[in-house]
Design a protein that fits this description.
The chain is of the alpha+beta class and about 500 residues long. Among the domains are: about 190 residues, no CATH class; about 150 residues, no CATH class. It is about 20% helix and about 30% strand. It contains eight helices and 28 strands. The strands form eight sheets. Strands 1, 2, 5, 6, 9, 10 and 11 form a seven-stranded antiparallel beta sheet that branches. The protein has a five-stranded antiparallel beta sheet with strand order 20-26-12-27-28. Strand 23 and strand 24 form a beta hairpin. It is globular.
Length: about 500
């Protein structure tokens, strides 16, 4: 370890764009309880932050630099393995826990987040629950604003890649990469947005010319004190320094965004409904998330913000993945498509899991929020066909969502640095499945046999299109538009080493 000559700090603040699912390993309330600190406030541990950022930097920086700054530990593979003592490199970057700003409260001390529950149920081809296939977990939702810190020391021996270069590129990763924390990230959970970054640097040498960052200032610096960050460098100032260093090339984002119109009602059921003493309380409710709105009061001279909670109907990524994945299985046999020759390994596009191994999904479905519609409470009766009267005990009340629009975002491949190729059969199958969604042949959610969950596509990647009447012998115009868009998006591109990578069976 060389002599430390500089200290660099980043303060990162960000918000959750979708609910966070980060387990504590306990199952007191659900099958997977959320991770909280001693005060019962959810947080993201520094180890999770370090793992996500390291994975995002993998491939953008050379392997030796990645090991030097992020650390490395050799995995002992057995008795014949060499000693691992010399193969352990300690990380030179310190990652702090990501905690809620002001403990997730506003100025009045009211919470700006909610810990709720989600349910996952595996369904068979008849949309009936499979035996022992229900799993529930806790999530964090709301206008959650987190803050975390990164600390890195610059040493005299840092010759190949200096610490400042690593730091400003990590800032770029936070700003531009698709960062997701926690579990179920391929199904829309843990996505962040509104990232803000500032920096402070200190020269730990005597008679430093840096008046705002010398050794005396560093001794008084407290990362958790806002006043210590008053003399900071903004991200614009940080990014301007790329002219002095190498700017890492991040993976190109591959995403298709579909604007959908709900042609009726939808029922994505929340299976763990809250108990209520109200007689009109529904037996089953549409799944929702929350949003905190600040409304101005006109009854006071001084405008004060008042908190109001808005329930927003959602379609979780797990629902999209289940519906689209099941339809694609009928077209390309489980979405496990082989290549043109016998040497090509099999892809598991939607992931796979059994007792021997697990594979992560190569398709990311975002969580969709419905807007422009309204909630409706409906009651239904079962009729005795012999007597023509209501069957005893067969009254059922549910809360559904009717009308409105939403957006379905589908991302492809590893969101960081792995190149993945997609076969033409896969692209055709996905285009055909999304065409079925547009035509109403693929409905989403429950009660689809009575017309629920029917959508039509109005925009593809922001471009509005008019549906042209299909002529005999021609492909559906929506299929052609989707196929051409996906083909352009997913055309084969070489990885950094010139080789294509794929998922092994």
């Amino acid at each position: 370890m060389g002599k430390i000559i500089k200290k660099h700090y980043l303060k990162i603040t960000f918000q959750l764009e979708s609910p966070l699912c980060i387990g504590s390993g306990r199952n007191d309330i659900t099958d997977q309880d959320i991770l909280c600190d001693a005060k019962g406030i959810p947080y993201i541990p520094g180890s999770a932050v370090a793992g996500v950022i390291r994975e995002a930097c993998n491939g953008a920086i050379d392997e030796s630099g990645l090991k030097y700054y992020f650390g490395y530990a050799h995995i002992n593979k057995g008795k014949n393995d060499e000693s691992v003592e010399s193969s352990i490199i300690e990380s030179k970057i310190i990652f702090y826990d990501a905690t809620l700003v002001d403990d997730g409260k506003n100025k009045e001390g009211e919470l700006l987040y909610r810990i709720s529950q989600r349910d996952g149920v595996a369904l068979n081809e008849y949309k009936s629950a499979k035996k022992q296939a229900k799993f529930d977990w806790e999530i964090l939702e709301g206008d959650c604003k987190f803050q975390t810190f990164i600390e890195i020391s610059e040493e005299e021996s840092d010759n190949e890649i200096v610490a400042e270069e690593v730091l400003i590129n990590i800032a770029k990763v936070w700003k531009e990469a698709d960062i997701r924390f926690g579990a179920k990230t391929t199904r829309g959970f843990g996505k962040i947005c509104n990232v803000d970054i500032i920096r402070r640097s200190f020269e730990l040498v005597k008679n430093s010319a840096n008046r705002k960052g010398n050794i005396e200032d560093w001794l008084e610096f407290d990362a958790f004190d806002n006043e210590s960050w008053e003399d900071n460098d903004s991200y614009e100032k940080i990014s301007s320094e790329f002219k002095k260093y190498n700017e890492w090339k991040l993976k190109e984002k591959k995403k298709i965004s579909l604007r959908l119109k709900l042609e009726g009602g939808i029922s994505i059921r929340r299976y763990s409904t809250q108990c209520s003493e109200e007689e009109s309380s529904p037996d089953q409710e549409q799944m929702t998330t929350i949003k905190f709105n600040n409304k101005k009061s006109s009854y006071q001279d001084q405008v004060e913000s008042q908190k109001s909670i808005e329930e927003i109907a959602v379609i979780p990524g797990t629902t999209w993945a289940g519906a689209i994945g099941h339809r694609m299985e009928e077209l390309i046999k489980g979405s496990k498509e082989k290549g043109d020759n016998d040497t090509t390994v099999v892809y598991h596009y939607f992931g796979d899991a059994n007792e021997d191994y697990k594979e992560k999904s190569l398709i990311y479905f975002g969580e969709s929020r419905l807007t422009g519609g309204e909630f409706k409470v409906m009651s239904r009766n079962a009729i005795d066909r012999f007597l023509g009267s209501t069957a005893e005990g067969a009254l059922f009340t549910e809360k559904i969502y009717i009308g409105g629009e939403t957006t379905l975002d589908i991302s492809f491949g590893d969101p960081y640095n792995t190149a993945v190729s997609y076969s033409d059969n896969f692209i055709k199958a996905l285009a055909a499945t999304l065409t079925d969604l547009h035509e109403g042949y693929l409905a989403v959610g429950g009660a689809t046999s009575v017309g629920r969950g029917v959508f039509s596509i109005t925009h593809i990647n922001g471009d509005e299109f008019d549906t042209v009447k299909q002529e005999d012998g021609e492909n559906h115009p929506v299929f052609d538009k989707l196929y051409n868009t996906l083909k352009t998006l997913l055309e084969k591109k070489e990885a950094r080493d010139g080789k294509q990578t794929c998922q092994k069976e």
